[in-house]
Amino acid sequence: MTARATSSRTPFVPSTSEDLPGQVLGMLAQHRMATGRQLQHVLLQRRSRREGLSRTLTQLRGDGLVDYVTLPASNNTRAWFLTEEGASLTRHLPQMQDRPPYPITSSSAASLRTAHTLTVVRTHAVFAATAASRGDEHGPWDWTPEVAHSVGDGERVIADALMYYTHTAPSGERVKYRAFVEVDRATMSSERLASKLIDYARFHLYEPQPVGGRRSRAEALGGPAWLRWYPSFPRILFVLTGAGPRALAHRIDDLRDMVREHPTVSAMARRVALGAAVLEDLETLGADAPVWHCLRGGGEPKPWTEL
User: Fold this and answer.
1) pLDDT greater than 50 at residue 130
2) Are 251 and 293 in contact (CB under 8 A)?
3) DSSP secondary structure, 105-153, as one string
4) Contact assessment for residue 5 and residue 85, using Cβ atoms and an 8 Å cutoff
5) Between these two residues, 132 and 73, which has the higher pLDDT value?
6) If you write DSSP's letter for every residue of 4-24 in order, what string do you get?
7) What is the mean pLDDT of the chain?
8) Counting CB atoms within 10 angstroms of each CB, which of 64, 167, 235, 284 has the fewest?
9) How far, CA to CA in Å, does 235 sit from each of 3, 176, 229?
10) pLDDT at 8 over 60
11) pLDDT at 232 (0 to 100)
12) Which is nearest to 128 in space by CA: 27, 18, 229?
C-alpha cells in the first residue's frame, strides 16, 4: 500500500517556518500514527480549513512520505503514518530526541499498533482542545509519547506520554505543569495497571550509583535521578477507557488501594499529585473539568490541576 514518489517529482524539503506539511510530518513522527481528525484537532485548533489538511496529506502521500490504513468499522476513517522515507526525513527533528526508534512504516505494522496509539493521540487532542479554548499553552510538541526512565537493576518505567502544560490565570500569572500520562484501554488486569504506580515510586526514589569511581551527570546534581530532567516530579495521570462505568470505577478503586497499601507508593503520593479520569468524560466536558479522581483518598472529583 505504501506510495512511492516518482522520479519526476521534486523532493520534499521541510520548511523552516513550520508550514503545515512539516507539522504533519513532525506529528506523525512524534505519535507514530494519527487520523486526519486528530491531526486537525491538535495542529489546526485556530484554523477552520480542513481542506488544507486533506490536500497536504494527499501531497505527502504522493511524495512517498506518508501512507494510511483504513480503520475497520469506522466509515472509512484513515489512520496515517510515515513511510520509511518519511521516517528517515524526520529522524532528527527536535521532538524525536530520546525517542525509541520504532517507527510505523508499513500497513501491517500500523494495524498491530492502531488501537493503543490512536487512543493516546485522542488523549493528547483533548488537552490541546482545552488549552486552545482557555488560552493556555499546550501545543503539538508539548506531548512526548513513550518516555522512558531507569529505575535501577536494568529496568525502566515507560510512560505512555509526558505532557507539558502552562495555564495562564486571569491575573496573567503563568503556572507550569508536567505530567506522566498513562492511557489504559482495560486490556490488562486491574492489578497490573495499579502496579505501574510501583514503577513510578521506584523512579521517584532512584539514585544511580557511581560506576568505576566516575560520577554521572545525574549524580553530579545530587539527589534522585529525576532531578536531571524535571524541577519537580511530574504528576501521574491515568486516563481510562475501553470498559463500562462499573469496571472503570473498579479500576480507579484498585489504583487507590495501591496508593493506600504499598508503603513506597504511599510515600510518593504525599509529594506527587496522582489522578485518574475516564477519557469519554474528558472528551465531553474538557480536560480541565472536575472529573479527575484523586488517588490519595476520597472526595469529590476535581480538575487535574487541583489534585
Assistant:
1) yes
2) no
3) -SHHHHHHHHHHHHHHHHHHHHHHHHHHHHT-B--TTSEEEEEEEEEET
4) yes
5) 132
6) ---TTSPPP---TT--HHHHH
7) 86
8) 284
9) 41, 12, 14
10) no
11) 96
12) 27
The SS3 of residue 159 is: strand
Grid cell, residue 224, equals: 534522585
Could you tell me the three cell numbers for 14? 521541510
**DSSP assignment of 33-87:** -EEHHHHHHHH-TT---HHHHHHHHHHHHHTTSEEEEEPTTSSS-EEEEE-HHHH
What is the predicted pLDDT for the residue at 110?
62
Report the alpha-carbon distance of residue 299 to residue 307 in Å, rounded. 11
Identity at 41, one-letter amino acid code: H
Does position 280 have pLDDT exceeding 50, yes or no? yes
106 band by pLDDT with thresholds 50, 70 and 90: low
44 is written with which cell numbers? 489546526
Q: Would the pTM of this model clear 0.70, i.e. be above it?
A: yes
* DSSP helix, strand, coil percent of the chain (3-state; round to 5): 40, 20, 35
Q: Which residue has the cell 483518598?
A: 297
